[in-house]
Amino acid sequence: MVKNITIFTTNTCAYCGMVKKWLGAKGYSYEEVNLDQNPDRQAEALKISGALTVPVTVVTRHDNSQEVIVGFNLSRLAPAVN
């Protein structure tokens, strides 16, 4: 069961919008961290994902385990939130 979803995004990222739209359509709430508005959190996104790309979606479950999905990857995102 999902406890929290955080998405690291930028203003110009089309895939970020796709992830947000998909989660919204499924009824999931999420916290968005816009890296253009919060550049101090870029290192956090890099550390979590190991990638210099967005979106980075972090799904935290009630047991505090996390799954990190880089990009718009429904084959990983869908099972992570269910």
Description of the structure:
It is a single chain. The protein is α+β, with helices and mostly antiparallel strands and 82 residues long. It has a single domain, classed as Glutaredoxin (3-Layer(aba) Sandwich). The chain is 34% helix and 28% strand. The chain contains three helices and four strands; from the N terminus they run βαβαββα. It has a four-stranded mixed sheet with strand order 2-1-3-4, sandwiched between helices. A hairpin with a 4-residue loop joins strand 3 and strand 4. It is globular and about 30 Å long. It starts with a strand and ends with a helix.
Fold topology:
Elements: E1 2-9, H1 14-25, E2 31-34, H2 42-49, E3 56-61, E4 66-70, H3 74-81
Parallel strand pairs: 1-2
Antiparallel strand pairs: 1-3, 3-4
Principal-axes geometry comes out as globular
Here the CATH topology equals Glutaredoxin
Order of helices and strands: EHEHEEH
List segments where confidence is low: pLDDT < 50 over at least 5 consecutive residues.
none
| Sheet with most strands: strand arrangement | 2-1-3-4
Strand content: 25-35%
Which CATH first-tier class would you pick? Alpha Beta
Tally of helical runs: 3
CATH architecture: 3-Layer(aba) Sandwich
**Straight-line distance between termini:** 7 Å
Query: Please, what is the CATH homologous superfamily?
Result: Glutaredoxin
Using the CA coordinates, give the radius of gyration: 12 Å
What is the total tally of β strands?
Answer: 4
Total domain modules? 1
Percent helix among the residues? Answer: 25-40%
